[in-house]
Amino acid sequence: MIQPKNIFSILNNELENLNINLTNMIGARHPILYAASQYLFNAGGKRIRPIIIMLISQATSNNSDITSSHKRLAEITEIIHTASLLHDDIIDECTMRRGINTVHNTFNTKIAVLAGDFLFAQSSWYLANLNNLDVVKTISKVITDFAEGEVRQGLMNFDIRMSIHQYIEKSFYKTASLIAASCKSAAILNKNNIKQQNACYIYGKHIGLAFQIIDDILDITGSTQSLGKSSSSDLKNGHFTAPVLFALIDFPLLQTIINQEFENEQDMFRALNIIKQSQGIKKAKDLAEEHIQASLNNLKILTNIAQANFLLIISKYILERIY
């Protein structure tokens, strides 16, 4: 049985080729945009999205093949994700990403915006060249969802009235939508029936939400060094996540501190202590586990159950990130 932390090794060759292809797909016609894009790609990343797509490709295939179209879909998904990070870092004024300075800090804000736009444009070009209209329709909707998620997040900054439902909706638009659409697209490319396509979409939706919730827990509990970015950045920016929202229910003092938008030097330290002492982190973990289970419920109707078992290991990997 493969250990969750070793799950990436089963597709090691495919992931190595993916990294090479990402560089080739960006192209070098625009040296500054190329350099800005490469800067983030070279910093690595979890590559969780590509490996899920490749595993879905195998789980929806009779012969466990990962076709060239599926590999290209995985690459497109990673480019779209990277483009969204470039823009997110500007909006959230992040100084670090994946252990290095953010692109807008290294170059400037204008270059970072243009580099993000450039990557979105490149992904659209390669998406069109898959020559599958259903996949184009499915993936292109994600770009709209990104914008919807950012607007929703911006409107709810430092708003303690935000509900868990609103948090989940925002997390879907900002994170889970891309994974859901990509999983469905993998099934479309394998010519699976509508029921299987929708099962892949729902799987991706819930695994994406679980991944985001775990990320949000780590933002509270992790260090800057382990995260590769500033810890507690969401809280500092007034973006309330599951651990914070659950803690707010039990601790009125946290509401008072947040209403002051951390104007005093010790406010952030006090807020983090309250969250860690509350049941917020445990409840957030329970919520992530609920979404993991909801995702796994959709694997039963896939074509290749043996390959689908690797998706179970991915679920364990996602949960083990908080230990």
Automatic annotation (TrEMBL):
Query: What Gene3D superfamilies does this protein's entry cite?
Result: Farnesyl Diphosphate Synthase
Which PROSITE patterns does the UniProt record give? POLYPRENYL_SYNTHASE_1, POLYPRENYL_SYNTHASE_2
One GO biological process term is: quinone biosynthetic process
GO molecular function: any one?
metal ion binding
| UniProt xrefs under CDD domains | Trans_IPPS_HT (cd00685)
Required cofactor names: Mg(2+)
Q: Does the keyword Transmembrane apply?
A: no
Instruction: Kindly state which keywords UniProt assigns to this record, in alphabetical order.
Output: Isoprene biosynthesis, Magnesium, Metal-binding, Plastid, Transferase
Keyword Metal-binding listed: yes
* Signal sequence annotation: none
PANTHER family documented for this protein = ALL TRANS-POLYPRENYL-DIPHOSPHATE SYNTHASE PDSS1 (PTHR12001:SF69), GERANYLGERANYL PYROPHOSPHATE SYNTHASE (PTHR12001)
NCBIfam families referenced in this protein's UniProt entry, alphabetically? prenyl_cyano
The protein, known as: Prenyl transferase
The gene name reads preA
